[in-house]
Design goal:
This protein is mostly helical and 245 residues long. It is built from twelve helices and five strands.
């Protein structure tokens, strides 16, 4: 049975495309290789596991190495082993406001409202050294891209400092599910994870303001992880996002 590409995570789709430059079959094998690359299996063991020749495995490795997997020689096994590369995601920042006199604070608020609208002013008021960018975007139901743009503008006043959350910070705050979604889909994944706690799927997905198909892929990942007691209905949700329902 052929692999359903639409069911793959974002990074697995990229892996599939890299392998599929040879053939569709090798695209599927590339995904399987990526999934079993745990730093313990050697190239020979992977070839046996996937039913590929040594040459086919080497060809796949050459397409995936660096961006998706790492290959290193181990003295213990006397052969090269393959490890998944950690996906690189845009960090989650926590903005902190320096001490500002009331007149300057109001002046910045008014300038933000005039340039970006009322949400930007609300953002500035919310910065308390405790809320990160996901909290801000969730509370105001605004896209991460908008939060980034406004924070960049505010930083020009010299009144902000940023603390970057580590993976452990994210896990502690958003839980094991949250950090898993972040590792696969970055900040938009984490934002949707939070928005779905507040809104129905279509409303939450629209707040992301990203490509509808990409949004659906993130939603499907979250659905599989949380396994809620209602049907997935991806097609129906996509039709609503595209204005066809």
């Amino acid at each position: 049975m052929a692999m359903d590409k639409e069911a793959l995570s974002g990074i697995e789709r990229s892996v599939y495309d890299a392998g599929a430059s040879t053939s569709e079959k090798m695209g599927e094998k590339a995904v399987l290789l990526f999934r079993i690359a745990d730093g313990k299996l050697t190239l020979t063991q992977i070839a046996d596991e996937l039913g590929l020749s040594a040459r086919e495995v080497q060809d796949l490795v050459s397409k995936l190495e660096g961006k998706f997997i790492h290959v290193e020689f181990t003295v213990e096994k006397k052969e090269e082993v393959v490890t998944r590369a950690e996906p690189t995601q845009v960090p989650v920042d926590l903005p902190r406001k320096s001490s500002i006199d009331p007149v300057t604070h109001l002046s910045i608020e008014l300038e933000l409202a005039a340039k970006f609208g009322p949400s930007a002013r609300a953002m500035f008021q919310m910065i308390d050294g405790k809320k990160d960018v996901i909290d801000i975007a969730t509370e105001l139901s605004i896209p991460i891209s908008y939060v980034d743009e406004v924070l960049f503008y505010i930083s020009g006043f010299g009144v902000l400092k940023f603390h970057r959350l580590t993976t452990e910070d994210i896990k502690k705050k958003y839980g094991t599910y949250g950090v898993g979604i972040y590792n696969q889909h970055g900040r938009n994944g984490l934002l949707l994870f939070r928005l779905l706690e507040k809104y129905p799927p279509v409303t939450a997905l629209k707040a992301l303001d990203i490509d509808s198909l990409e949004a659906i892929v993130i939603y499907e990942t979250i659905y599989k992880i949380l396994a809620p007691p209602y049907p997935l209905n991806s097609k129906q949700i996509l039709q609503k996002l595209l204005g066809k329902a």
